[in-house]
Design brief:
Blueprint (H helix, E strand, L loop, with lengths): L20 E6 L11 E5 L4 E5 L6 E6 L6 E4 L4 E5 L5 E2 L1 E3 L4 E2 L3 E2 L12 E3 L5 E3 L6 E6 L4 E6 L6 E2 L4 E2 L4 E7 L4 E6 L7 E3 L5 E3 L8 E6 L5 E5 L6 E5 L4 E5 L14 H7 L2 E8 L6 E10 L5 E9 L11 E6 L6 E2 H7 L7 E9 L8 E10 L3
Parallel strand pairs: 14-19
Antiparallel strand pairs: 1-2, 2-3, 3-4, 5-6, 6-8, 7-10, 8-9, 11-12, 12-13, 13-14, 15-17, 16-17, 17-18, 18-20, 21-22, 22-23, 23-24, 25-30, 26-29, 26-31, 27-28, 27-30
Length: about 375
Amino acid sequence: PYDTDECVAYTVPVGQPNAVLRALAIDLGDDERPEGYVWVGGYSARMWWKLDPRTGEEISSVSVPVSPYGGVVTADGKLWIGVLSGNSFAYVDTTNNTVSPVIPFPNFRGRSGSYGITADGNGRVWIAGWGGRDVIGYDPALEQWTVVDTTGFNSTVGRGITVDGQNRIWAPLESNPTRMAVFDSDDFVPGGVVPGNEVRVYTPPGSRTGASGIGADANGKIWLAHYNAPSELVRLDPVTEEFDVFTGPRQVYTYSDFTGQVRRTIVGEGIYQVEAEAECDSPDWDLMHFDTETPEGSTITFTASSAPTHDDLDLAPQLELAAVPGSVSPTAVGPLFDEAQIPQNRFMRVSIFLEVNDDGVSPVLREFRLTWFCKN
């Protein structure tokens, strides 16, 4: 029920009456707000409002030439505007509040509307289509479109679209039953078509309709939401190809980045924290495994703190464990704590700092594992 969720930090009104707030995105932030500023889009108002993430205070507003129905911010700070209908989209440069001219959708699109919007790690923007049989992608560097041919799957593309940690694009197929389609974002064909044989389709068990949001979690599993009763959540493990189905008491309707994985994948800069708790008070923290890719000029740095309680982690000293390029996996964690004369305690927090290069190209953290053992 409204206003009873203990996780809600604040609620603020945004825009004028009947603005029809549908879009929300988080930009790259700055030194004052490194977590990113919140942008809220009004569909009817054709406006974006920039808010302080800590207070909800309005900082600025921008008028745009299309109706915001969704939004995604790429690593260069551009807020790309998803639309519900029409034949074009645009972006706001969040670093200076300037607005682009409208960018027409490709003529070969053959659909009646749009819905979800996402972007990959290379800055390409992907749009799902409500009422159409395709996904389209736009490469701003080339100013070229591609269309993904899903006509052979006898269904329309559902509302949501997302990117996972491996830079693959996922979209629901609206049929009976609903299905999941996936393809590699690097299959992008400038000015051409990604053929249907490059698209893989997964069919969950059972029969359900009303596919809405699709998202990847931090473990690489894919979640598909449904707004039709019983509004089930379907989870796919792409490694084992096994499905889980979850049914709850509420209707589930979303088409955006509900897991946060898209922002982590495409922004590629900032701080990602992992916390672990051992099963004893004085464990030996063993090895930190990591799989990274650092384009020239980009870096990934790992630091850690350890404390006897979770609440004490904020005050514990930070210790650098590894820096890439330079360090190799795995890193022996315990000896570094011993050498620094810092006790190894039950709780460990690893902070991972990702920094893009001068061209805005992001480093990639594909895998991270931390092991420990108890002496007794």
